[in-house]
Every structure is written in structure tokens, then in C-alpha cells.
Amino acid sequence: MPIDAxxxxxxxxAQGGKPSGASQRRVQGAIDAYRRGLAPWVVxxxxxxxxxxxxxxxxxxxMLLEQVPADCxxxxxxxxxxxxxxxxxxxxxxxxxxRKAAVVTCDWHLRRAERCFxxxxxxxxxxxxxxxxxxxxxxxxxxLRERASYYLDRGPRFGG
Length: 160
Prior knowledge:
The chain is of the alpha/beta class and about 160 residues long. It contains five helices and nine strands. The chain has helices at about 20-35, 55-65, 80-95, 110-120, 135-150, and strands at about 5-10, 15, 20, 40-45, 50, 55, 75, 100-105, 125-130. Strand 8, helix 4 and strand 9 form a beta-alpha-beta unit. Helix 3 (about 80-95) crosses helix 4.
């Protein structure tokens, strides 16, 4: 089954409303996947605002600057968590009779993201964006945070 859309997950936006660091790597991963022809659509997902700009809007603007056609980029602006990314993107997918997504996020975040999307009913092709090398201590903290976040954001208070 072909991939219906590339979904890039929200992340911190720098001052001035531009992706940087992890968010820029995610956007570039989505752009690269689009240019490789992985899917005809890109969905920028993330409603959290940083410095007055929603993640998905910043991502869309960055993609347009890189010549991704505006009519091929959709935004999902309601989500505040990874689980909500999956839930709201699933609604968008159902409205278009789409079933399969290439999910673009940081390598350390991909396992949780993939689980959330599968649980939301979307067949998932993971697209890992490599992160810079970090210490064992930071990798351990990140892994614990990812595991805790997966369980915590399942509750009603966090959008599950």
C-alpha cells in the first residue's frame, strides 16, 4: 500500500518563529522524504505555540521556503502532545480516506510516536531523523522521559 502522507511532528520553535535544532532536522527530514517521492502530501502537526508561532505553521513556512508546493502541505494545529499529534492526524486521515503515514521525528522519539500513531489507527512507516551524539546520562534520561510520557499522555488530562 502506498504512503498517503508524510507527517512531521511538532517540536520547539526558536525565537523569531523559525525551526532550529531538532525542529529544523525534523522539517528537513520531511522535505527530503517529499523530494524522494515518498508521498504526495506533507502534514505538519503541532499546535503548541513558541514565541507566538504554532509549530505546524513554522514547519509549513520552512517547507514553502524550500520549494515544497503550498497545496501539498497541510497543517494540524490542535495537538499539544505526541498522542494528540496521532489522534488529530488520524482525524485528518479518516476525512481523506488515507491509511498510511511516513512519520518523521527524532530518532530517540520515534518508537513512542510510532506506537501512538498505530494506536490511533494509522499504518506507520517510521522516518528517523538522526540526533547529535549525547552522553549516556542524557540518553538514559531521554529514554525514561519517553517511556513516562507515553503512559502519562494517555490519560484524559493529557489528551488520551
